[in-house]
Amino acid sequence: MVESPCVACCRLDADKVCIGCYRHITEIVDWNRRSDTENMQILMRTKQRKAQAKPDSAAAQCATPITQEEWQAAKIKARLS
Question: Dmax of the chain from CA atoms?
């Protein structure tokens, strides 16, 4: 099982990407339900995002905690895909 990259800093930027683990909210929900192959693909994308991120950027400063509403909407979207 591929370990989650979560660092317990769940704050989303304007693109709904967590500034802690660099996963999009749709990649965060249902992590444990995905296959190892899917999770490895997500980890590859997070590495790219992290490499492109600018430390202390305005986007990171405007990041907000994930709301219950955002979580539920992303969960529904993930399960419909």
Answer: 35
